[in-house]
Amino acid sequence: MSDVTNQYIAARREWDERYGSTLSRARNWMLVAFFCAVAAIVSTAGNVWQATRSHVVPFVIALDGDRPVALGRAEQLNTTNDKRVVRAALFAWLQDFRMVTNDPQAMRLAIDRVYVHIAKGSQAQEVVSDFYRKLSPFQRAQGETVAIEVKVVLPTSEHTYEMEWIETARDLYGTVKVQERYRGSFQTALEPPEDEKLARLNPMGVYVVQANWTKVL
């Protein structure tokens, strides 16, 4: 009996030595693989969660002539109530409208920007078109240039602004010919564009619907 027992113990020892360590290593690798899979799932879920969150903070920049003016985070602004957005748009619009340059390409771009900020079929469109017909900036550019210096952009009601500016006309040699002061009243409307192309030209949807001005004597 002892011989049988000894043989059994010897066989068990040999089995443990041959296969026990292999099975143990296999179990360890299975555990490692399981934890790696769990870590991969958690990492993937985290990446998906991060991707669904926006990390871009939109920031509104307006132009004060050629100078950019930071207005703040987009979510902090209300374009209906924030007069600075409309004032900046009117500032740039008036300079494009009344300027005269002897660079034909720059003049065409300025006129395009003027009409992009005018409501179609409005009184402002009629007045501006009539002004261009009577005083073509391309014809004027053959003998003079006109620089605009905006002095005042003052809201007088929710959608109406009073503006004052000085126009300085120079001959083609840069000599000042005349300097005149103007005052005008401009009514605006806000309609954010849905068209992507228009949004690049008039992102805030600021439109001039009425325009009246006179020379200050």
Explained architecture:
By secondary structure, the chain is α+β, with helices and mostly antiparallel strands. The protein folds into 2 domains: 55 residues; 153 residues, Nuclear Transport Factor 2, Chain: A. It contains 6 helices and 6 strands, in the order αββααααβββαβ. It has a 4-stranded antiparallel beta sheet, with helices on one face. Strands 1-2 form a two-stranded antiparallel ribbon. Helix 2 runs antiparallel to helix 3. The longest helix is centred in the N-terminal third of the chain and has 51 residues. The radius of gyration is 37 Å and the shape is elongated. About 3% of the residues have low confidence.
CATH fold annotation of the largest domain: Nuclear Transport Factor 2, Chain: A
Largest beta sheet, briefly?
4 strands, antiparallel
Distance between the termini: 133 Å
Structural class, from helix and strand content? alpha+beta
Concise structural overview:
By secondary structure, the chain is α+β, with helices and mostly antiparallel strands. The protein is 47% helix and 29% strand.
